[in-house]
Design a protein that fits this description.
52% of the residues lie in helices and 7% in strands. By secondary structure, the chain is mainly α.
Length: 203
């Protein structure tokens, strides 16, 4: 069937730029003229079939759609790492594996590569198993200890941790009555001033 090149997301989003710049293991299937310099191990002017390269997603995707290259799932989404995440997802340093683990994984799902059907389940299970731990830490970790928690989280999880922390801060401010205090509306205050002024003038 026809495979459609996926959207690369928000052109102005730094996260999307970083994610689409992540590498995909590829093998050249058709000669590509004038791009031999991409293969640092060769002095050829052209890229020859059989050459293996790690290409950024934004380049690999359109080449795959034209069958100029074939590709494999990046190693952090392969069976070995899926098994590690399945055994104890909370203990895994996801940032070290892939800083944009979830976002890049969602892009990989769109590529015509083997094993891609297992990536989706792996992403869902990893997120489900780590979500409660992240939220518990965001609610109970001292601010000075937060770095010890977030250093092991991928970028999406760090955003989630920050949202949990902000929600806790908002709740604590509300409980201390630091926010949403009842105050006289400015319209009422101005009305009272005008009324007093009118009474003064009439007396």
């Amino acid at each position: 069937g026809t495979w459609i090149t996926p959207s690369f997301g928000d052109y102005f989003s730094l996260d999307d730029i970083l994610t689409t710049n992540e590498r995909v293991p590829c093998k050249i299937e058709l000669p590509i003229p004038k791009l031999g310099s991409l293969d640092s191990s060769s002095k050829e002017e052209d890229l020859k079939p059989g050459t293996k390269l790690d290409l950024p997603y934004w380049l690999a995707a359109p080449l795959l759609s034209r069958r100029i290259v074939s590709a494999e799932v990046p190693k952090v989404y392969r069976e070995t790492y899926r098994e590690i995440l399945g055994a104890d997802a909370v203990a895994v340093d996801l940032y070290r594996l892939q800083p944009q683990y979830y976002k890049f994984g969602l892009l990989i799902q769109r590529l015509p590569v083997s094993d891609v059907e297992y990536v989706n389940n792996s992403l869902i299970e990893a997120f489900k198993n780590r979500f409660r731990h992240i939220m518990d830490c965001s609610q109970g970790t001292l601010k000075e200890d937060a770095l010890d928690v977030t250093v092991r989280l991928d970028m999406s999880e760090r955003e989630l941790f920050s949202l949990g922390r902000e929600a806790l801060d908002d709740l604590q401010r509300w409980m201390r009555r630091d926010s949403h205090k009842i105050a006289t509306a400015s319209m009422v205050t101005n009305h009272r001033k005008r009324k007093r002024a009118a009474l003064t003038e009439s007396s």
